[in-house]
Amino acid sequence: MKTILALLLAICVLDSYGKGVIHEKEQKAQNLSIRSGELWLDDSGHHINAHGGGVMKYGDTYYWFGEHKSEYTSDALVGVMCYSSKDLVNWHNCGVALSVTEELGHDIERGCILERPKAIYNPVTKKFCMWFHLELKGRGYSAARYGVAVADRPEGPYKFLYSQRADAATWPLDFGDEERKLADTLNTAHYKDWSSAWIKAVGQGLFVKRDFGTGQMSRDMTLYVDDDGHAYHIFSSEENLTLHIAELTADYLHHSGRYVRVAPAGHNEAPAIFKHKGVYWMITSGCTGWDPNEARMFSSSSIWGPWKQHPNPCRGPKAEITFGGQSTFVLPVGDRYIFMADIWRPQHPIDARYIWLPIDFEDGKPVINWRDGWDITKLR
Ligand code: GAL
User: Whose C-alpha lies nearest to ligand 1, atom 7?
Assistant: First the structure.
């Protein structure tokens, strides 16, 4: 009997470990502090499955939305997950906030690529609005669309509305008559990729012109709601070479048509933005797929720019590769900010880990110091 019980226990332990459940000692450590890179358990004892995500605060509750990742593929087999917490340490699994569908040919058909979801609350319509990067099933990363979904409750269920490319037939705000005329003459066939003439032409709007009719590419993204209630969609466009900041309509469900370009030909992905003492700060990564690279940082006194580049804000071990992660969001908590990043595990996507670190300031500039563990309650 004893042997059978021991055997059963061993099977249970092995089985639960396989599903991402960690042992007691690790769980205790997690309850005391935020330990980047370790397994983070939800209230059911499973590693939180919300990658490339962001956090929305509504009332006294934080809602963490992110990509559900499976064991062996990064394709979306489930959709967007939502977790809720009042203290940012203990997370309740609210389930699937936006589900992929079985319908063949649907924009969010199971097996599409659905990345970097972010949700914001619209106080006018009283709806929760979710935007994400969408790639149509079976087409790699060529669709380069954003998707929009809406819900009546913070945790969902979110109803898919539409997906498309950005700002078709619209020039950026920072293009006057001269710039538009010049961009209109540009043709990708005339340039060799990465030649100095090509880089110059990218800056002048080579890809804005190429995609003018069909709409601008829209990949890695975040959302930002400013103090005045205006919201913005910030995304990698133009073959991931140039970031776009596009204003949303008052209902947060469409682009208003006003947008600017940031760091043309700078190759930035994974934008995360916050505002501190009237200055907008944006942290991004370079473009090396799932592999980590050195974080970049920009600032501007207006959301519309001009944006100025600063050195890498990370300090400590592996600071030159963002501690092994890639930025996804900056969460304001009181008068502090938490930098959120993902440590991807492309061979075993469900096992990807999270980096959360407080942002310090040195000489008025954000600095992200590595900490093995830190107490989030001391932030406030
Ligand atoms: C990264 C991007 C991720 C994902 C990945 C795919 O650069 O930030 O969200 O798209 O590439 O390789």
Answer: 289
Q: Which residue pairs from 331-336 have beta carbons closer than 8 angstroms and sit at least 24 positions apart in sequence? A: 331/54, 331/55, 331/62, 332/274, 333/88, 333/376, 333/379, 333/380, 334/379, 334/380, 336/379, 336/380
Q: pLDDT tens, 276-296?
A: 999 999 999 999 999 999 999
Predicted local confidence at residue 186, as pLDDT: 98
Long-range contacts of 224-232 (CB under 8 A, 24+ apart): 224/273, 224/274, 224/303, 225/120, 226/275, 226/303, 227/275, 229/123, 230/303, 231/120, 231/122, 232/303
Per-residue pLDDT tens over the stretch 93-122: 999 999 999 999 999 999 999 999 999 999
pLDDT tens string 331-349: 999 999 999 999 999 999 9
In the reported structure, the alpha carbon of residue 254 is separated from the centroid of ligand 1 by a whole-number distance in angstroms of 24
Is the pTM higher than 0.85? The answer reads yes
Q: Which of 269, 342, 344, 345 for a ligand 1 pocket mutation test, highest count of atoms within 8 Å of Cβ?
A: 269
Determine the distance separating the centroid of ligand 1 and the alpha carbon of 23, expressed in angstroms.
31
Bond from prior residue into 123 cis (ω within 30 degrees of 0): no
Q: Could you tell me the distance, in angstroms and rounded to a whole number, from the CA of residue 221 to the centre of ligand 1?
A: 11
Q: Which of 161, 165, 168, 166 is nearest to 106 (CA)?
A: 161
Residue to probe by mutation, ligand 1, list 326, 340, 345, most atoms within 8 Å of CB: 326
Collapse the DSSP code of 235 into the 3-class scheme (helix H, G, I; strand E, B; otherwise coil) and give the result.
strand
Q: In sequence order, what are the beta bridge partners of 14?
A: none
**Strands 326-333 and 314-315: what pairing?**
unpaired
The CA-to-CA distance between both ends of the chain, in Å, stands at 53
Distance 32 CA to ligand 1 centre (A): 31
- Ligand 1 atom 12 nearest Cα: 289
Q: Which atom of ligand 1 is nearest to the CA of 240?
A: 7
Whether ligand 1 lies within 6 angstroms of the CB of 116 is answered as yes
The domain ranges of the chain are 38-164
Domain spanning 38-164, CATH architecture: 5 Propeller (2.115)
